[in-house]
Amino acid sequence: MEVKAAQTKIVFAKGDITRQETSAVVNAANSSLMGGGGVDGAIHRAGGHAILEECKKIVAAKGPCPPGQAVITTAGNLKARYVIHTVGPIWRGGDRGEDELLRQAYFNSLSLAAEHGVKSVAFPAISTGAYHFPQERAARIAVCTVLAFIREKPLEEVRFVLFSDEDLGVYNQVWEELSAKG
Ligand code: AR6
Fold this sequence. Notes:
Blueprint: E1 2-5, E2 8-14, E3 24-29, H1 38-47, H2 49-62, E4 70-74, E5 82-87, H3 98-115, E6 120-123, H4 135-152, E7 157-162, H5 165-181
Parallel strand pairs: 2-7, 3-5, 3-6, 6-7
Antiparallel strand pairs: 1-2, 4-5
The structure holds ligand AR6.
């Protein structure tokens, strides 16, 4: 599905984050920035060693990346120009600030994109895999945070890349609900 909001094209698509042709793709990283499974493993595998080398330099200079924060590196062999690595919260039941940390992960990723003149960004469903954040609750935060951001700073395109039909269905439903509310 493709919609327009605040001069920005918003796309909801099923796919693999490593194959997106946006200027930046967002990585669902962990604080070590040293890679892992899921999206993180796929990005480092497809992007090659250059990404890890830059992550190592960032950690050496600034230390680990706390939940909610984001850093930017080259995208190595990916089609994108940049990878924005953000660390989502681990779900611990919902009353440990998880919603706010997830919002910050999206917001800080978008801020880094804007600072680097990035016009199009692809997001995976941060925190909803190994970190177990409930998909629908996460989708609502993801979409609301993007909408709030682009009202201030429009981008050309924001793409939500979901790994399954079911996850894509959740995002489509969340979008319908939010647009019905206005
Ligand atoms: N493209 C798009 N979406 C994907 C892909 C892909 N190639 N692979 C998985 N997903 P996860 P998290 C979906 O676990 O929950 C790593 O080990 C997946 O179905 O990648 O933030 C890190 O190093 C799920 O819906 O990220 C961290 O330690 C979503 O992407 C930890 O996992 C996110 O799943 C981060 O966990």
